[in-house]
Input
Amino acid sequence: MLQTPATPLRFERLLLTGAAGGLGRELRPRLKAYCNSLRLSDINTLQPEQASSGEEIVPCALQDAQAVMKLLEGVSAVVHLGGVSTEQPWEPILAGNIMGVVNLYEAARKHGVGRIVFASSNHVMGFYRQDQVVDAKSPPRPDGFYGLSKAFGEDVAQLYWDRWGIETVSIRIGSSFPEPRDRRMLATWLSYDDLERLVLAALTAPVVGHSIIYGTSDNQASWYDNTHARHIGFRPQDTSDIFRAAVEARQPVIDKHDPAVIYQGGGFVKAAPHG
Ligand code: NAI
Ligand code: 15L
Output
């Protein structure tokens, strides 16, 4: 957790969706430092009576338009992590990531919510090769239904900016875990502290319209170029480099003919969406 600045910019009420998930649990205590009230939502696990001081818990399925409409009432800004986070059959992706994102933006429009931080994914770009550099203007090449749904979410964000002036930062998160798990993650890793820095920058940058930024730490090996996102003011301070020797010792040989090694999306490029 970062040292909270002396005069932090405080939001009246932040909404965190996907609050029961891996990144949601990590961001929950961190976001509390930046708001008077943190509304936490998920389809799973969270019980309203588990809210601590300064928190509200509102369970909600993102595909339920009425429930999402109520969820956004009185919210200043949203950190939207909720939805399917891996390659899955179409039906859950349709519910959580397609219907869910439209419901969220419709509710934001009706309630006058000005800014959303959208957890997009590197899998929007998964079929670029690991020897190519991509930036925010490179055409999407999703690596499955999951990546496709995140590309759709980014397009929804663009529409709601163009037509209704709702600002979004779409963060194409690389791999946000305690440590990089394999050779690919040496390029895609985002530490939890850098995730907090990035979400905070995305919430507070003065002018973002709809901006796309790749979410990684300051890793020596990288296939992302964030030149078009400099205005967000994100400076990663961690690096996967400190884990390199250990990762390479664990995975000394890589098969250069394996699509999971060739493409940026790694194993997702060969995950079977139809089960
Ligand atoms: P996670 O799977 O642990 O958390 C997602 C949460 O969304 C879960 O708690 C789940 O119950 C909830 N959810 C799923 N379907 C829902 C629905 N229909 N209605 C309401 N809630 C629903 O994923 P994680 O790792 O915490 O990721 C958070 C977000 O960041 C996700 O959107 C994921 O796609 C994105 N992301 C994460 C990366 C990572 O490295 N952790 C990398 C790239 C993107
Ligand atoms: C993602 O989009 C997933 O949500 C996460 O679980 C990781 O697998 C990550 O991408 C990755 O590419 O490593």
